[in-house]
Write the C-alpha coordinates for this entry.
Amino acid sequence: MTWIKICGITNLEDALTAVEAGADAVGFVFYEKSPRKIDVETAREIVEKLPARVEKVGVFVDPTAESVRELVLQAKLTAAQLHGKLPKELSRDLRSVREWGSGAKLIAAIPGETLKGDVSAQFGLPGALFAILVDSRSNGGTGTTFDWEATRGMVQMISLSVPVIVAGGLTAYNVSEAIRVFQPFGVDVASGVEARPGKKDLAKIRAFVSAVRAAGKLT
Protein backbone atom coordinates (compact mmCIF):
# COMPACT_ATOMS: atom_id res chain seq x y z
CA MET A 1 0.00 0.00 0.00
CA THR A 2 1.41 3.39 -1.02
CA TRP A 3 2.60 5.53 1.90
CA ILE A 4 0.92 8.96 2.01
CA LYS A 5 2.22 12.18 3.56
CA ILE A 6 0.14 15.36 3.81
CA CYS A 7 2.65 18.18 4.18
CA GLY A 8 2.45 21.82 5.23
CA ILE A 9 0.19 21.18 8.23
CA THR A 10 -0.35 24.35 10.30
CA ASN A 11 -3.33 23.50 12.51
CA LEU A 12 -4.90 20.59 14.39
CA GLU A 13 -8.06 20.41 12.29
CA ASP A 14 -6.10 19.75 9.10
CA ALA A 15 -3.86 17.22 10.84
CA LEU A 16 -6.79 15.25 12.22
CA THR A 17 -8.56 15.31 8.85
CA ALA A 18 -5.44 13.92 7.18
CA VAL A 19 -5.23 11.13 9.73
CA GLU A 20 -8.95 10.37 9.51
CA ALA A 21 -8.70 10.22 5.71
CA GLY A 22 -5.96 7.60 5.97
CA ALA A 23 -2.66 9.50 5.68
CA ASP A 24 0.41 7.71 7.04
CA ALA A 25 2.32 10.91 7.81
CA VAL A 26 1.91 14.64 8.26
CA GLY A 27 4.58 17.25 7.61
CA PHE A 28 5.47 20.44 9.48
CA VAL A 29 7.52 23.06 7.61
CA PHE A 30 10.24 24.83 9.61
CA TYR A 31 11.37 27.20 6.85
CA GLU A 32 11.11 30.95 7.33
CA LYS A 33 10.22 31.74 3.71
CA SER A 34 7.40 29.21 3.43
CA PRO A 35 3.75 30.33 3.65
CA ARG A 36 3.23 27.04 5.49
CA LYS A 37 5.81 27.73 8.20
CA ILE A 38 4.86 26.58 11.69
CA ASP A 39 6.47 27.34 15.05
CA VAL A 40 7.78 24.58 17.25
CA GLU A 41 5.21 25.11 20.03
CA THR A 42 2.23 24.78 17.68
CA ALA A 43 3.77 21.75 16.00
CA ARG A 44 4.33 20.05 19.34
CA GLU A 45 0.74 20.71 20.44
CA ILE A 46 -0.53 19.09 17.24
CA VAL A 47 1.88 16.16 17.45
CA GLU A 48 0.77 15.35 20.98
CA LYS A 49 -2.82 14.87 19.75
CA LEU A 50 -1.98 12.52 16.88
CA PRO A 51 -1.93 8.70 16.94
CA ALA A 52 1.43 7.04 17.53
CA ARG A 53 1.18 5.20 14.18
CA VAL A 54 1.33 8.47 12.22
CA GLU A 55 4.78 9.75 11.22
CA LYS A 56 5.34 13.36 12.28
CA VAL A 57 7.83 14.82 9.82
CA GLY A 58 9.76 18.06 10.23
CA VAL A 59 10.70 19.72 6.92
CA PHE A 60 13.97 21.68 6.86
CA VAL A 61 15.70 23.75 4.15
CA ASP A 62 19.47 24.38 4.26
CA PRO A 63 19.48 23.40 7.94
CA THR A 64 22.25 23.14 10.48
CA ALA A 65 22.63 19.91 12.40
CA GLU A 66 21.87 21.69 15.66
CA SER A 67 18.62 23.23 14.41
CA VAL A 68 17.37 19.87 13.16
CA ARG A 69 18.32 18.18 16.40
CA GLU A 70 16.61 20.79 18.59
CA LEU A 71 13.37 20.96 16.60
CA VAL A 72 13.05 17.19 16.30
CA LEU A 73 13.33 16.82 20.05
CA GLN A 74 11.26 19.88 21.02
CA ALA A 75 8.37 19.12 18.67
CA LYS A 76 8.53 15.36 19.35
CA LEU A 77 8.91 14.58 15.67
CA THR A 78 9.49 11.07 14.35
CA ALA A 79 11.26 12.05 11.11
CA ALA A 80 13.32 14.85 9.56
CA GLN A 81 13.00 15.74 5.86
CA LEU A 82 16.05 17.62 4.58
CA HIS A 83 16.02 19.96 1.57
CA GLY A 84 18.68 22.15 0.02
CA LYS A 85 22.43 22.14 0.52
CA LEU A 86 23.65 19.91 3.30
CA PRO A 87 27.11 20.81 4.65
CA LYS A 88 29.55 18.01 5.44
CA GLU A 89 29.18 18.55 9.18
CA LEU A 90 25.44 18.07 8.89
CA SER A 91 25.82 14.81 7.00
CA ARG A 92 28.34 13.63 9.59
CA ASP A 93 26.24 14.65 12.59
CA LEU A 94 23.04 13.22 11.18
CA ARG A 95 24.59 9.76 11.09
CA SER A 96 23.96 9.70 14.83
CA VAL A 97 20.32 10.84 14.55
CA ARG A 98 19.12 7.77 16.42
CA GLU A 99 21.38 8.70 19.31
CA TRP A 100 19.50 11.97 19.87
CA GLY A 101 16.96 10.15 21.98
CA SER A 102 14.24 10.62 19.37
CA GLY A 103 14.77 7.66 17.05
CA ALA A 104 13.89 10.03 14.19
CA LYS A 105 14.02 8.77 10.62
CA LEU A 106 15.77 10.66 7.82
CA ILE A 107 14.22 11.64 4.49
CA ALA A 108 16.61 13.29 2.02
CA ALA A 109 14.93 15.49 -0.62
CA ILE A 110 16.41 16.04 -4.06
CA PRO A 111 15.11 17.86 -7.18
CA GLY A 112 14.02 15.52 -9.94
CA GLU A 113 16.16 17.28 -12.55
CA THR A 114 19.37 16.61 -10.59
CA LEU A 115 18.93 12.86 -10.17
CA LYS A 116 22.15 10.99 -10.90
CA GLY A 117 24.23 8.15 -9.56
CA ASP A 118 24.04 7.02 -5.95
CA VAL A 119 21.72 9.60 -4.40
CA SER A 120 22.20 8.16 -0.93
CA ALA A 121 25.95 8.70 -1.17
CA GLN A 122 25.43 12.33 -2.23
CA PHE A 123 24.09 12.96 1.26
CA GLY A 124 26.93 11.11 2.98
CA LEU A 125 24.34 8.85 4.55
CA PRO A 126 24.51 5.49 2.80
CA GLY A 127 22.29 3.01 4.58
CA ALA A 128 20.97 5.61 7.02
CA LEU A 129 18.01 6.95 5.07
CA PHE A 130 14.37 6.08 5.60
CA ALA A 131 13.66 7.35 2.08
CA ILE A 132 14.66 9.67 -0.77
CA LEU A 133 12.02 12.28 -1.62
CA VAL A 134 12.07 13.38 -5.27
CA ASP A 135 10.59 16.86 -5.65
CA SER A 136 10.38 19.48 -8.39
CA ARG A 137 12.65 22.01 -6.66
CA SER A 138 15.28 21.96 -3.92
CA ASN A 139 13.09 23.68 -1.32
CA GLY A 140 9.78 21.99 -2.22
CA GLY A 141 6.29 23.46 -1.99
CA THR A 142 6.21 24.80 -5.55
CA GLY A 143 3.05 23.06 -6.71
CA THR A 144 4.73 22.02 -9.96
CA THR A 145 5.76 18.61 -11.27
CA PHE A 146 9.17 17.54 -12.55
CA ASP A 147 9.73 15.59 -15.78
CA TRP A 148 8.30 12.19 -14.85
CA GLU A 149 9.17 10.33 -18.05
CA ALA A 150 12.77 11.62 -18.18
CA THR A 151 13.43 10.57 -14.58
CA ARG A 152 11.43 7.36 -14.53
CA GLY A 153 14.41 5.04 -15.02
CA MET A 154 16.58 6.74 -12.41
CA VAL A 155 13.80 6.77 -9.82
CA GLN A 156 13.17 3.08 -10.34
CA MET A 157 16.92 2.40 -10.03
CA ILE A 158 17.11 4.33 -6.75
CA SER A 159 14.09 2.40 -5.49
CA LEU A 160 16.14 -0.79 -5.59
CA SER A 161 18.29 0.42 -2.69
CA VAL A 162 16.32 3.22 -0.98
CA PRO A 163 12.53 3.74 -0.76
CA VAL A 164 11.41 6.66 -2.95
CA ILE A 165 8.71 9.20 -2.14
CA VAL A 166 7.43 11.25 -5.09
CA ALA A 167 6.36 14.87 -4.54
CA GLY A 168 5.88 18.06 -6.54
CA GLY A 169 2.59 19.19 -8.02
CA LEU A 170 0.59 16.13 -7.06
CA THR A 171 -3.20 16.30 -6.87
CA ALA A 172 -6.07 13.85 -6.72
CA TYR A 173 -6.19 14.11 -10.53
CA ASN A 174 -2.60 13.16 -11.37
CA VAL A 175 -1.35 11.07 -8.43
CA SER A 176 -2.55 7.80 -9.99
CA GLU A 177 -0.38 8.54 -13.04
CA ALA A 178 2.62 9.28 -10.80
CA ILE A 179 2.10 5.93 -9.07
CA ARG A 180 1.81 4.16 -12.43
CA VAL A 181 5.01 5.76 -13.73
CA PHE A 182 7.21 5.40 -10.65
CA GLN A 183 5.61 2.70 -8.49
CA PRO A 184 7.03 4.58 -5.49
CA PHE A 185 7.11 3.66 -1.84
CA GLY A 186 5.17 6.86 -1.09
CA VAL A 187 3.69 10.15 -2.28
CA ASP A 188 3.81 13.58 -0.67
CA VAL A 189 1.36 16.46 -1.21
CA ALA A 190 1.03 20.02 0.11
CA SER A 191 -0.41 22.62 -2.28
CA GLY A 192 -2.47 20.00 -4.12
CA VAL A 193 -4.80 19.62 -1.13
CA GLU A 194 -5.00 23.28 -0.06
CA ALA A 195 -7.74 25.88 -0.02
CA ARG A 196 -4.92 28.43 0.27
CA PRO A 197 -1.28 28.26 1.40
CA GLY A 198 -1.24 27.00 4.97
CA LYS A 199 -4.90 25.92 5.05
CA LYS A 200 -6.00 22.57 3.72
CA ASP A 201 -9.17 21.80 1.80
CA LEU A 202 -10.73 18.88 3.64
CA ALA A 203 -12.49 17.51 0.55
CA LYS A 204 -9.22 17.62 -1.43
CA ILE A 205 -7.40 15.68 1.29
CA ARG A 206 -10.02 12.94 1.22
CA ALA A 207 -10.04 12.88 -2.59
CA PHE A 208 -6.24 12.63 -2.74
CA VAL A 209 -6.07 9.73 -0.28
CA SER A 210 -8.90 7.94 -2.09
CA ALA A 211 -7.12 8.38 -5.44
CA VAL A 212 -3.90 6.94 -4.03
CA ARG A 213 -5.67 3.93 -2.53
CA ALA A 214 -7.56 3.31 -5.78
CA ALA A 215 -4.34 3.52 -7.80
CA GLY A 216 -2.69 1.04 -5.46
CA LYS A 217 -5.31 -1.56 -6.28
CA LEU A 218 -4.43 -1.27 -9.98
CA THR A 219 -0.66 -1.69 -9.66
Notes: The longest helix spans residues 202-218. The chain has one domain: 3-218. The chain has a mean pLDDT of 86. The two ends are 10 Å apart (CA to CA).
